[in-house]
Amino acid sequence: MAHPTILVSNDDGLHAPGVLALAQALAELATVIVVAPERNWSAVGHTKTMHKPLRAVEVTLAEGIRAFQCSGSPSDCASLGLLGLVGGHVDLVVSGINDGANVGSDLLYSGTFAAAAEAAIAGVAAFAVSLDIVPGAGLLRPHGYRTAARFAAALARKLLAAPATPPWLLNVNVPDLPEGGGATPPLPNAEVTRLGTRIYQDALVERLDPRGRRYFWIGGNVPSGVVEAGTDIGALAAGHISITPVRLDLTDEGRMEAVRALVGAGT
Fold this sequence. Notes:
By secondary structure, the protein is an alpha/beta fold. It has helices at residues 17-26, 74-85, 111-121, 143-161, 232-237, 256-263, and strands spanning 5-9, 31-37, 56-62, 65-70, 92-99, 126-132, 169-175, 190-192, 198-208, 214-225, 241-245. The strands form 2 sheets. Strands 3-4-2-1-5-6-7-11-8 form a 9-stranded mixed sheet, sandwiched between helices. The longest helix has 19 residues, at 143-161. The radius of gyration is 19 Å and the shape is globular.
């Protein structure tokens, strides 16, 4: 392949520490253009702006890396980049590095994964990459982002060399491990996994504003998960990188006949 172009996005915002680490690592193998939200869009899911204008302003992120700060969601950012904002063909979309793991049914909520999924819808290979770190701790432990960025660059190189139909769509989670010895410690082992079972502990928190009107937060404890071999949750628990191939066809093929019998429908 001629010199490729990689579009980078995320859901934590353009100036989140993970996006710069990712863009700099990928710049060693491709032209990198960043299109990322101007603010945090965590847990926004696959939101697409249809009823108001979007703005994208070119800004300075790092030397040699073009970047656009966008008013829209992560999926808006990917869409703008793919539809022509970056001014040329895009060979791969990489979304991240997310501040916190995206495992199991997190993918339905994740803005990070939504940007990658938007690329897959457009027929472009993509992957989302997340760091299993306590949200907000990244500035204190930057080596985790460096490790995730190194793995993302290695994976990107392989995907660019092996295009597939339909295009690759992967969800990657990297454990936050100690730096280890040496200037460039070895990467953790990687596992190809299926999505695990995420356990949410949401709770409704009701309060009153200064005028006595009710308002609500969706609160609760940090989600947990079922640690099971072969899953993304199990891989992270073992200190391994998880790579999950994902498809956007949500059809429950195993229940087609049961639904036909239920509603009396034919084939």
